[in-house]
Amino acid sequence: MEESKEKIVDRMIEDEMKQSYLDYSMSVIVGRALPDVRDGLKPVHRRILYAMNDMGMHHNKPFKKSARIVGEVLGKYHPHGDVAVYDSMVRMAQDWSLRYPLVNGQGNFGSVDGDSAAAMRYTEARLNKIAEEILADIDKETVEFVPNFDNSLKEPSVLPSKIPNLLVNGSSGIAVGMATNIPPHNITEICDGIIASINNPQISINQLFEIIKGPDFPTAGTICGRGSILEAYNTGRGKIIVRAKSEVITEKNNKQTIIINEIPYMVNKSELIKEIAALVNDKKIKGISDIRDESDRDGMRIVIELIRDANSEVVLNQLYQHTRLQTTFGIIMLVLVDNEPKVLSLKQMIEEFIHHRQIIIRKRTEYDLKKAEERQHILVGLIIALNNIDNVIKQIKASKTAEEAKNVLMSSYKLTEIQAKAILDMKLQKLSSLEQKGIRDEHDELTKQVSLFKKILSDEKEILGIVKNETSEIKKSYGDKRKTYILDQAYESFEEEQLIKPEENVITISHAGYVKRLQVDTYKQQKRGGKGVLAATTREEDFIEEIFIANTHNNILFFTNKGKLHWLKVYEIPEAGRQAKGTSVSNLIHLDNDEKITAFVPIQDFNEGFLMMVTKNAVIKKTALSEFANPRKGGIIAVNLRDNDELVRVVHTSGNDQIILATKNGQAIRFNESDIRPMGRQATGVRGAKLKEDDVLIDMVKADDTKTLFSITENGFGKRSDVSEYRLISRGGSGVINILCSERNGKVVAVKSVTDNDDLMLISKNGITIRTPAKDIRVIGRNTQGVKIMNLEDNDKVISATNFVKEESDEVPSNNA
């Protein structure tokens, strides 16, 4: 047999995984999420501008359909979703998103109220003039061109960019393990800062800070405190507080009105007004009688009328503390420098831009010099021919072929092939005296240009002088006044929790992940024998899964299938009316696209009890609740998952409980939680049950002999069995049969601990939902198939079941955890 040429390299899996993930993450960082320090653009924005320029869509040319632009970008340079390209182009046209919009949009491009842009087939666009400054000289070999995704075309790796776009328009993005958030600035100040840096390369950041006052947002507003800005400029990281601009008007009857005409950057005006109205209705903000949006084409105007004798300063402070009339902008000046992510100071960003412009001007000048010398070379040949025109014509006429004429000219006058061809291609009209003068004048002018270009290339000071002059021209052409006002001192800040009154609230969580809180009075005000109130208006396929009382300062722990834990204070859950469906949990905590909440645990005291976590591969872990007492923004890893494993369930235990684990193939194991030693937060866990090869764990419940264990299979068959029938064994065993998984039944999809007073909700793959009382389901032995509980159509399966919390109830369970 022929020996295989394949080379196998032994390598530690940890090293391979680390290197492969680093390669992947760097690809995302460089190719998607972070802007380049030179032109301030991410690849998608760069490709849009380049494609529009290539299509000739300049500021003085007609608009073209956005769909045509998106198609051009997708087909040639950016093989991703059309929505991503269109959304990026739309943002570049919004004057409330970019300080200096790069695209001129015609049609509905959205609004500061959060309205979406019209479909791309309806809108039109072209480049703004300032965007053409970013693309200027791109045809003069100033930047490197690289192959596009299919090697059929070339695209620029960076744009020449006369505009310091990264600083004037800012950028934001989330990469792998890092994020950037650069605020926009005033172009006049940035240009002055660049010129000052060229004049004095040793300039300090404090000196730059005298020129560049701070961020300048397109929606204006007020920045509170200069100290935080200086810190961000020095270190590349910092936080600034941005407030809306308000004006208080006193009417004749001593009633006061607050006028808001500027709001913080990236705040949705419509949502802001709804937020204020909701807080007024919930009596969190007092003293407001009416709120109106009187914004029009002349500008923004939010009118907040106060009740008589209300103190406008108190109301304003409440608004700043509780609404997005005051926001925090976290500055992270993370950019790509030579394709490497770096956090830069303000001075370093300016230096990188100046260096980029030096390179562009040098390459542009080299290109112009090459073209000038090529043309000069041809003109020298033409002048020689004109000086000897009679003899040249005679020699050409005597030649039998063009090739012979070319060779004769080259040998007779010591011309190059290029010069000889130019003479042969010369029109007879060039022999007129004016044409001859024009050729000689052009030669003289080119001689001067060549001399100038060589002078520029020989002296770096000349190049810096051009950078300075071009920056001055940019300032003159596009400079404007600052929009955002900066206060010297920051307002006194408060911890959010200090502003929240400790009180009991009712928390409801629906099966689809909608959460809200209500005042306890909503449930407690009825007399004995009342019908109760509706806890929430949910979607037809949704229902309330949990309802409990908790203090506003308590925590709720949310666990995801990826083993992550997120904290939410009860007061962070938006308060809503009785019939509101609430807010999606995904709007309150950050989840990845393929991540979902699999468990939540309300906690009052972190010093009591344990958290028992189990995965689909039956790995179980017990950790003291106190290990999770320090919340972290963005969440933490609660359990380290092995490959292809997911967190299935989390239960709060006392330390002396018994646990039942149930599997897809109908097995169940009951054991003491004391069989599992407490582990640290970073631990993976131990085997909870021994699974067969094709089996996975689907649920975990606390064993309670006063309850029954309800099991439901995918084909709609189920039963209840007494918990006492499940004998107590040691952790890690195979357990006993819980329900027979016959061909009729299919696999088990859910197991719940229920009483006769509970209701159960069953959900099918096709979205069919039925509610059934637990008492109507027979209590039979473990080793049985059960009875038909849910009738299913062809190709439909039961996918989930849960205890159903009755919406019409006079009593709400208290959170005694």
Question: What would your notes on this structure say?
Answer:
With 817 residues, the chain is α+β, with helices and mostly antiparallel strands. The protein folds into four domains: 27-158, Alpha-Beta Complex (Topoisomerase II, domain 5), CATH 3.90.199; 245-324, 2-Layer Sandwich (Gyrase A, domain 2), CATH 3.30.1360; 361-478, Topoisomerase, domain 3 (Orthogonal Bundle), CATH 1.10.268.10; 496-804, 6 Propeller (Neuraminidase). The protein is built from 18 helices and 40 strands. It has a four-stranded mixed beta sheet. A hairpin with a 4-residue loop joins strand 6 and strand 7 (179-182). Helix 7 crosses helix 12 (346-387), helix 12 packs antiparallel against helix 16 and helix 12 packs across helix 17 (460-478). The longest helix has 42 residues, at 346-387. The radius of gyration is 36 Å and the shape is elongated.
